Amino acid sequence: MFAFQYRKAKTLKEAGEWLSKDDEAKPLSGGMTLIPTLKARLANPTQLIDLNGLSELSGIEVKDGALIIGATTRHHQVATSKVVRDAIPALADLASHIGDPQVRNRGTLGGSVANNDPAADYPSAVLGLNAKVITNKREIAADDFFQGMFATALEPGELIVRIAFPLPKKAAYAKFPHPASGYAMAGVFVAQTTAGIRVAVTGAGPGVFRWSDAEQALAKGMNAAAIEKLTLAADDLNEDIHGTREYRAQLAKVMAARAVAALA
Amino acid sequence: MAKIELTVNGKKCSGEVEDRVLLANFLRDTLNLTGTHVGCDTSQCGACTVHVDGRAIKSCTLLAVQADGADVVTIEGLAKNGKLHPAQAAFTECHALQCGFCTPGMIMTTAALIKDTPNPTDEEIVHGLEGNLCRCTGYINIVKAVKRAAELQGK
Q1: What is the pTM of this model?
Q2: CB-nearest partner of A103 from B22, B112, B131
Q3: In this predicted model, what pLDDT tens digit does every residue of A212-222 receive, in sequence order?
Q4: What distances in angstroms separate CA B74 from CA A39, A148, B46, B79, B84, one per listed residue?
Q5: ipTM field
Q6: A50 contacts in B (CB within 8 Å)?
Q7: Which residues of B touch A (CB under 8 A)?
Q8: Is A124 left (phi over 0), alpha (psi -120 to 50) or beta?
Q9: Looking at the complex, does the CB of residue A99 fall below 8 Å from at least one CB of chain B?
Q10: Can you list the domains of chain B with their CATH numbers?
Q11: Measured between beta carbons, which residues in chain A are less than 8 angstroms from residue B60?
Q12: Which residue is closest to A2 within chain B, CA to CA?
């Protein structure tokens, strides 16, 4: 690991200021991606600004028809929270299958969403549930937030404070995890919301995306058979040693059908 | 450099560490607690698992400075008054190891697992051990040992 300076912020304001003053500083949340990246010398930040323990970034509550979760809430807390289980059980279920137990004990919602790994689970829930990402500067709609592989609308010095998930009528997530890493080869979040049906796909493409053909097909009839008639275009999907783009297109379709079946 | 103070296996400890030092290295190199193993160094194998404030974590993926003020338990602190923890007793009884390199991490994960889930099913055990790799055993006796550890804990 290259040397850096570690600083633990006492307030969100202080963390934002430290980051704004130094382009090469990085925020540290759960560290489950950042620390392995540093160990592999793939990043060389000047400072790590630790966000853990900031009261503004913690807490889980249901307010005004939305489930609101603080950015530093760990996956284990989301998976086992009664408030989450009652409000959006699909989200608790998704969190319970991220990585492994040790990763879930450290990794955070805000960290995962800000990192926007193309195979991470949480982005599909944020996009599928049409959530709002609330930062220290503004509110960003999920449709505007994710901008492709590891890219988001976040500006330098901008930090996710909390995420507000509007309560859906029904929602379900199905993923095909890579057997070694647990990352999604394809994961599909399906939600029936007051604003219509949303289908978000992670793992298969260069970033999370909405599958509009599936959304339209499900609007006509909410059943798995509606998915089985579709073909997801493979042209823009990921291809690597683990699977071809056609294989991922097929997996995404099967996961979508499974998520729809789980809605019932 | 940062000065840190933490509780390790019930004892207050302090040390000066470089900001980039990992908790696993602090435990091994500064406190000489070499029971915590570093296996893969890529945050996958779980051999370095310890408990921080009661939760199992990979100590190779946490900076020592982040553990400032924390309560840390390593494999050396699991036995109480000379009596093995149920997870240690069960791994011995079920011969849940071959080379033993992954065992400290397996036992720390097992101890955390049976605290959260006192009567785990086979599926819960397999899911619960996803963060720990063993390259010798094929896991059969490890799964048996987790079940046995849960039984011993209930006695």
Answers
A1: 0.96
A2: B131
A3: 999 999 999 99
A4: 22, 41, 13, 10, 13
A5: 0.96
A6: 66
A7: 2, 18-20, 22, 41-44, 46, 49, 55-58, 60-63, 65-66, 109, 112-113, 128, 130-132
A8: alpha
A9: yes
A10: 2-76 (3.10.20.30), 86-154 (1.10.150.120)
A11: 39
A12: B20
